[in-house]
Amino acid sequence: MSNHSGRGQVTGLPAWDRCAVMGVVNVTPDSFSDGGRWFDTTTAVKHGLDLVGEGADLVDVGGESTRPGATRVDEDEELRRVVPVVRGLAAEGVTVSVDTMRASVARQALAAGAALVNDVSGGLADPDMIPAVAEAGAPFVVMHWRGFLDGANVRGVYDDVVTEVLDELHARVDAVLAGGVSPDRVVVDPGLGFSKDSEHDLTLLAHLDRLHALGHPVLVAASRKRFLGRVLAGSDGAPPPARERDAATAAVSALAAHAGAWAVRVHEVRATADAVRVARAIEGARTEANTPGAHASQVARASHAAPDTASAPDTASAPPHLPHRAEGTR
Known about the structure:
Number of helices: 10
Strand content: 5-15%
Radius of gyration: 24 Å
Largest sheet: 8 strands, parallel
Order of helices and strands: EHEHEHEHEHEHEHHEHH
Number of strands: 8
């Protein structure tokens, strides 16, 4: 099975022929990398439209920070932050995802035009979430989650992180399906950075192919996260600020696309949009090269292009051939 054919599609969402790019709009004052930058409706909607202009296929709108130690916003405030932005973007034809752990926010965002619910708790934080999503017939992202990021949950303990995350995600997906969400509307997310340290995140990324065993499209949300800061740390061990991790994020996006991810969730879109398109072009070239008869076709084209030696001009009188050196090479 090729990476492309294993990527999957999600009923209720557009069908992309490559890894999709999900841009992030945090309508919060305290998100870990861009809190406060898009905190009013007008600015947030404009930012979402800018992300689409840079290549985002869909936009994820959230009104509550999930960084370690963050205080939960109350329901009314989350609704005030999120719903107008969802409505504004949907009115412009943007495919919108709502990033929330509350069923009430999911319901109102879907009514305002959201097409997808992205719940980092996979329905665990609010028992009404799964019934709400099932009733609406909406696609649903089920992320691996072990609780709010405080105390012992900030850094999880695993004997085999890949196997344990797969087993726990499988159990969560079963619960979501039992709650009435259609299997063709479920997306899974390994939950990078949630109750995981840097080594756990890197190991999960190295084994993304195993997530396909769950039978659902995979969303990878690595953008600007702590493990990238650890990888990029200088000789003094200090990680670069979150907003200086976008090139590393694009590298992960390319790798995730190659591994068959359905979508990647990122703060800075342009570099990742380029990365997934290059990954798709390479994927297409590999598929074409492996098509039966491709080699024979290439030989035939080469033969057709070769000069007829019987009618070739006398090389003795031809000017000497000068070797070509590509510009910029040594």
